[in-house]
From TrEMBL:
Annotated ranges, domain Beta-ketoacyl synthase-like N-terminal: 47-219
Keyword vocabulary terms for this entry: Transferase
InterPro entries assigned: Beta-ketoacyl_synthase (IPR000794), Ketoacyl_synth_N (IPR014030), Thiolase-like (IPR016039)
The organism's place on the tree of life at top rank: Bacteria
One Pfam family hit: ketoacyl-synt
Protein name according to UniProt: Beta-ketoacyl synthase N-terminal-like domain-containing protein
Length: 355
């Protein structure tokens, strides 16, 4: 018999002040740029200073967000750790290659090489808490977080695990930004936050972040929501998107009108935001629409920010005005659908229900 899947805790480090779980987007961090960095917490409160100096940024962000999630869930260990990342610790990969060139392949320290792999984050967290269970990292572009979530959902639903730490992390790296500006995937000019989604230009505002969640097949006092279902679609013709979403909901005996809101992944890229615009004026025309990438920036695991956002909305019963994309009323929502895609590919649907 399959069991339900619950989100029992959350933790986030992002471009906004999300590491302090006591507030919910009350103090918005604005910017005027095309690549934005996270608001760093005081890492000394979570990581010994000597260790922090040797850590890649992605590892430090994940240490904070994962510890916050574990603390809220009241756990010291979990049965499995599953992390999604598009770029991994790319910063240390670049530094290691640069050291090879600068030092003529001699006198190299192993730290940057050890920390340059994609699974460094999951391994580091496991070592820190002494978790000897299932440890896996998914590197599937902008479906990396959803792939991790899917794995956890299957394990919990079939009773293979009871508590799983699921994470999404990507860090901003200068070389990556410059190369993607060159091919128009990142905006070449700085854009104020309030203008990002209506910029009318090609490319995205690049961001970074780390988001961790404890998923369980047992409900507890801290539970935020229930993961009803999710769908992943690598390629999907634009004319089939509405049909696919409708079919997905029907399979879960839910209609479009049963949704209290939809969270859309608009990122300001004029070439591909039309997908969301078309849905907003057709399939989702009668639904409250929320957006978030003007706050978080776009990166491979930005949907982890949307997942954090949905659960905060459920817990607080509030929807900050800065998230609103249309004017339809939304109060204390009970059921939300998250829809994301990047450059017309790798579509994902995540359906959540308040507990």
């Amino acid at each position: 018999m399959k069991k339900e899947v619950y989100i029992n805790s959350i933790g986030s480090v992002s471009v906004q002040k999300t590491f302090d779980d006591s507030a919910f987007l009350e103090d918005i961090v604005t910017y005027n740029d095309n690549a934005i960095k996270v608001v760093d917490p005081n890492y000394k409160e979570f990581i010994p200073p000597a260790a922090a100096r040797r850590m890649a940024k992605g590892i430090k962000m994940s240490a904070v967000s994962s510890q916050n999630a574990m603390k809220e869930a009241g756990l010291e260990n979990v049965d499995a750790i599953i992390v999604g990342t598009g770029l991994g610790c790319l910063g240390d990969s670049e530094k290691f290659v640069r050291d090879i060139l600068d030092n003529d392949e001699q006198y190299l320290t192993p730290t940057r090489f050890i920390q340059s792999s994609h699974n460094t984050v999951a391994g580091s967290i496991a070592l820190d808490m002494g978790c000897k269970g299932y440890n896996f990292t998914y590197v599937h572009s902008n479906l990396s977080f959803e792939s991790s979530l899917w794995d956890a959902k299957l394990q919990l639903a079939t009773n293979e695990a009871e508590n799983i730490l699921v994470g999404a992390v990507d860090e901003l790296v200068n070389h990556h930004v410059e190369t993607h500006k060159f091919i128009d995937h990142i905006k070449k000019e700085a854009v104020p936050m309030e203008d990002v989604l209506n910029s009318g230009t090609k490319g995205i505002v690049f961001g970074e972040g780390s988001h961790f969640f404890v998923l369980s097949n047992k409900k507890q006092g801290s539970t935020y929501s229930r993961l009803i279902d999710m769908g992943i679609y690598n390629t999907l013709p634009e004319e089939k998107i509405s049909e696919t979403i409708t079919s997905f909901l029907e399979n879960n005996k839910i209609s479009i009108s049963d949704l209290d809101g939809v969270i859309l992944g608009n990122n300001g890229d004029v070439e591909f935001d039309s997908i969301y615009k078309n849905l907003g004026t057709s399939l989702f025309e009668e639904n409250p629409q929320l957006v978030y990438k003007h706050l978080s920036g776009e990166y491979d695991t930005a949907s982890g920010f949307a997942f954090w956002l949905a659960n905060k909305i459920f817990k607080t019963g509030k929807v900050p005005e800065i998230l609103r994309w249309n004017n339809l009323p939304i109060n204390n929502p009970k059921r939300l659908l998250i829809y994301n895609q990047y450059r017309g590919k790798n579509h994902s649907l995540v359906l959540l229900e308040k507990c």
